[in-house]
Specification:
By secondary structure, this protein is α+β, with helices and mostly antiparallel strands. Helices cover about 40% and strands about 20% of the residues. The protein contains 10 helices and 8 strands. It has an 8-stranded antiparallel β-barrel. Strand 5 (about 70-80) and strand 6 (about 80-90) form a beta hairpin. Helix 3 packs across helix 5, helix 5 (about 180-190) crosses helix 7 and helix 8 crosses helix 9. The radius of gyration is 20 Å and the shape is elongated. The termini are far apart.
């Protein structure tokens, strides 16, 4: 019965991480963000098994075991007398926790799937932005570009791919001109490849492929002191990008701040800055 559960999970969630993300040790402590704020996860590895601790926002905690995978871990956990399939997948500077309740008949209750995002506790994390919006669960529709830029860092990877595709074309172009932010977005998108056409557009002209981005940011940068410097540079350029987005509104174009923003965008448009050149700085 569990084999059927795992097969359905793979089909329903489109699990592609093993071929895209190098083997990554989950050992360490994590703090929940966005919908998981106030929750904690902790992992210690023992051979092919992780011993985990999950703490909810009320102070309750639970110890569990999960089998180590090439990328992440999974297991069936007994939570308050009910079995739950849980998968922990590396995602950016943290992990996604996907939980799916299992019925008494051994079937997964797919409609009750929950995905939460956790970041490593030792990372510096900016406060949740005022324009934060919940992550999209599927492609289609449109999204406010400023809300996307301010929110994507708090979303699971597949939601970043969906959200990038929901940003209107001229704003996607504006985002690409801010290559440090584009590198950060690509780091998320490359981990899921949930929207191949949008991913291909995001990579176009950047001088990198997904393997380059995952190896550089997920490996060399994330494992060293350069990571906080990279994230600080991302935040600084995000401020410039959101200003450029706001200045695209007609009645603000003649303000002094928008003239300065326009000059920065024009300089970026004629520069040779790409994601590849950004990553070489770290």
């Amino acid at each position: 019965m569990l084999h059927r559960i795992f097969t359905v999970l793979a089909l329903s969630l489109g699990v592609m991480f093993a071929s895209l993300v190098a083997a990554q040790d989950l050992a360490g402590a994590y703090k929940g963000v966005a919908a998981a704020t106030g929750m904690r996860l902790q992992f210690a590895r023992a051979g092919d098994t992780y011993e985990g601790l999950f703490a909810d926002r009320t102070g309750g905690s639970q110890i569990f075991e999960a089998t180590a995978l090439e990328a992440g871990a999974e297991g069936v956990v007994d939570r308050q007398g009910r079995k739950v399939f849980m998968r922990f997948v590396p995602d950016g500077a943290g992990l996604q926790m996907v939980s799916i309740p299992i019925s008494e008949d051994g079937d997964m209750i797919i409609e009750n799937t929950q995905t939460l995002l956790f970041l490593r506790e030792d990372l510096e994390l900016p406060p949740l932005p005022t324009r934060y919006v919940d992550p999209p669960q599927q492609p289609g529709g449109t999204i406010d570009p400023e809300a996307f830029v301010e929110s994507y860092a708090f979303w699971p990877s597949e939601s970043v791919s969906y959200g990038f595709g929901m940003v209107r074309g001229r704003y996607r172009t504006l985002i690409r001109l801010h290559a440090t932010v584009q590198a950060d977005i690509l780091w998320k998108m490359c981990q899921s490849q949930a929207a191949p056409a949008e991913l291909a557009e995001a990579l176009r002209g950047q001088g990198v492929n997904c393997q380059d981005v995952l190896r550089k940011i997920g490996g060399a940068i994330q494992s060293g002191a350069a990571f906080n410097r990279f994230k600080a540079d991302v935040l600084a350029q995000k401020a410039q990008l959101t200003e450029a987005i706001r200045c695209s509104i007609d009645y603000r174009r003649n303000s002094p701040a928008c003239k300065l923003s326009g000059a920065r965008v024009a300089a970026a448009a004629v520069s040779l800055e790409t994601v590849a050149s950004v990553l070489r700085r770290y």
